[in-house]
Write a structure and sequence with these properties.
It is a single chain. The chain has 316 residues and is of the alpha/beta class. It contains 13 helices and eight strands. The chain has a single domain, classed as 3-Layer(aba) Sandwich (Rossmann fold), CATH 3.40.50.1820. The radius of gyration is 21 Å and the shape is globular. The N and C termini lie far apart (84 Å).
Amino acid sequence: MKRFANILISVVLLALVALTAATAWNWAPDRPVAQLKPRWALPPSQFVALDGMQVHLRDQGPRDDPAPIVLLHGTSASLHTWEGWVAALQDKRRVISLDLPGFGLTGPFPDGDYRMAHYSAFLANVLDQLQVPRAVVAGNSFGGQLAWQFALDHSQRVERLVLVDAAGYPRNATSIPIGFRLAQIPALASLMYNLLPRAMIEASIRNVYGDPSQVSDELIDRYFELTLRAGNRQALRQRFTQADGGPGYTRIAELKVPTLIIWGGRDQLIPPVNAERFQRDIEGSRVVLFDDLGHVPQEEDPARTVAALQAFLSDM
């Protein structure tokens, strides 16, 4: 009996040591934005005071462009996801990319409202601030949902619409990144605010790439460090909680703007059947499918995907 008790005590102590080591290894409290700027806000980044926030954005290319291209990233991403597209476009087009509230270096909405209507109003304010009356609006995933919602809310301001693996229809994912799954479990919320295994971020990124071998250490660093920006993890939890539950997607058929739909054939988060739904519902839209790419095709292969965009814009 005494021997059993000693064994039990040893097991418990080993478990406690392992738990303490794991906690220490994955301890990742919030980081102030000032600490992140030197690496992730290099020129031409700027911060614009708007709606009680310092909005991180980049405004590149010729200022006489009558319809600048506005690029909207997806959940837990940042303006950096569009760097390949910007590099290819900026010689001839004005290109505006930004960190949406709750993500990147912009940080949370001050009022904690993460409903799509609030994001749409915010985007209108951004364009007003930058004196852009009309734009080509492109978005990936959550940013794609914002793009088509903005086109419904402000149709006169959208010259063309580009949906890249866009959200909107009822989710039919075949695989969800582990980070997204954990963020939606209320019991883990307080724990997730101070713990963030880098391996979890890596697994989540590999999950959304068509070719996981393309995921580099620098890419993982970017997603990991920007997730740690003060307030972003709380904002992600709030956004999932406030996700619009109504049939807003039924209004997609009201869109009358020229629309390009770009999709990764290996997207498991928002499978390619959604591209077919967008094409069916948006009259005159066209689809370009990249069989070997995943949920963020603009990041995974910017050269091929931006070529599809350039072809779409060539008759403007």
